[in-house]
Design goal:
This protein is α/β, with parallel strands linked by helices. The protein has seven helices and six strands. It has helices at 45-53, 80-94, 110-121, 148-156, 162-166, 173-176, 181-189, and strands at residues 7-13, 16-23, 30-34, 57-61, 104-108, 129-132. It has a six-stranded mixed β-sheet with strand order 1-2-4-3-5-6, with helices on both faces. Strand 5 (104-108), helix 3 (110-121) and strand 6 (129-132) form a beta-alpha-beta unit.
Length: 206
């Protein structure tokens, strides 16, 4: 493998498959890179070589429902327990001895939310975390019935977090709040995604 090149593989885990980019010595400790929404493993392309140069194995999956990974249609298939099981299985599949452990998990945006929960639920497998952009949403919320978005709204205000800002606008609300008025109108009325169709997020750029 030439310097600067990552290897793309399809890894079966937890009853699905994940499309995964890796770079570095296969026997080196893993740094697991989790992309945000919308995004794919391609978001980490500039970081993988430096991580490999530092003596680690960079592993960046397309999370379930994103890119070239499996996209279950049931909304209930996207809970944190299922995603954690995907990633634990991925670590075991990549390790020659089947060890489910990484040196660190790095998450951005949605990936950071996942990373916080991985460290909480499986501290032995995820002993170190780097969170980019998202604080731990479960602090002060364990045992609470309050929805995460309500906590964000209470702590950050009406216009701080994009999910809070866009929530009343409908299924495309997560991005239209940063668009121009004309683009917002187009987004609200768009029928590009038929009702009930599987929603794959942005494919990995080629």
């Amino acid at each position: 493998m030439l310097r600067g090149q990552s290897r793309r593989m399809r890894v079966p885990t937890n009853g699905i498959h994940l499309s995964v980019a890796t770079q570095g010595d296969p026997g080196a400790p893993v740094v697991l890179l989790l992309h945000g929404w919308p995004g794919t493993s391609h978001n980490w392309r500039q970081q993988m070589q430096p991580i490999a140069d530092a003596g680690f194995r960079a592993v960046a999956p397309d999370l379930r429902g994103f890119g070239d990974s499996a996209c279950p249609q049931d909304v209930g298939s996207y809970g944190i327990d299922a995603i954690a099981a995907d990633l634990l299985g991925l670590l075991g599949a990549l390790d020659p001895g089947g060890v489910r452990r990484c040196a660190a998990v790095v998450g951005h945006d949605w990936g950071a939310t996942i990373a916080w929960h991985l460290a909480l639920l499986h501290p032995d497998a995820f002993p170190a975390i780097v969170s980019l952009g998202i604080p731990p949403s479960f602090i002060g919320a364990l045992g609470s019935d309050e929805a995460p978005v309500e906590r964000m709204q209470a702590s950050m205000g009406e216009n701080f977090f994009y999910i809070v800002r866009g929530r009343p606008l409908g299924p495309l609300c997560l991005c239209v709040s940063v668009l121009s008025p004309s683009a917002q109108s187009d987004a609200r009325t768009s029928t590009a995604v038929p009702p009930g169709a599987p929603r794959r997020h942005h494919p990995r750029p080629r």
